Amino acid sequence: MESLLDDIQSVLYSAEDIRRRVKELGAELSSWYRDEVPLVVGILKGASYFLADLTREMPIPLEIDYMVVSSYGTSTRSSGVVRILKDLDYDISGRHVLLVEDIIDTGLTLRYLVDILARRNPKSLKIVTLLDKPARRKVDLVPDLVGFTAPDEFLVGYGLDYAERYRNLPFVGILKSRVYAEQR
Ligand code: XMP
Ligand code: MG
């Protein structure tokens, strides 16, 4: 039987590391939104596991919506041109919006998205990301809350994919470079 584990060089954040950190993030966010009902917006597909676990660590009233965006570029590098494949179901004007991302790399994807959403006049717009690779930033974008500051490696698992696979790994791991070497 073929196993995804054969393609993993090492585990960077274990399921237990993630569970512990997500609990802390949930507590922090719950205090931020003590007096407001935030609209928690997951960026699919990568943020799906993170959002599901994070919101279960937020015992406050909140609403959930999703966006699907696709960034033109190769499968390991984004271009900064973003296409909205599925927009929000609800109007965000006057709302407190919390964007939930899996990983911020160059920042191009989120910079573009934040600029679009800001024009819709939300009352506040904050970003929480599970992983941040600040060393690779190409545009000015600082998330409000970060799970882990990650090294410049190609990461998969817990929602993160390579060519749509590996999302279902329960940890975040470094992908063996031989898996994507031909694509770069
Ligand atoms: P930017 O560069 O626009 O990238 O901040 C954001 C999107 O790029 C993808 N990305 C990754 N996906 N492992 C992944 O599975 C990674 O190490 C990685 N780095 C960037 C991801 O889709 C993210 O939303
Ligand atoms: Mg993503």
Bound ligand species: xanthosine-5'-monophosphate, magnesium ion
**Quaternary structure:** single chain
User: What does the largest sheet look like?
Assistant: 6 strands, mixed
Task: Assign the structural class, choosing from mainly alpha, mainly beta, alpha/beta, alpha+beta, or little secondary structure.
Answer: alpha/beta
Please state the average pLDDT score: 94
Q: Can you tell me the CATH architecture? A: 3-Layer(aba) Sandwich
Count the DSSP helices: 4
The CATH topology is what? Rossmann fold
N-to-C SSE string, H for helix and E for strand: EHEHEEEHEEEEH
Quickly describe the structure.
InterPro entries: HGPRT, Hxn_phspho_trans, PRTase-like, PRTase_dom. One of its GO terms (biological process) is IMP salvage. The protein is an alpha/beta fold and 184 residues long.
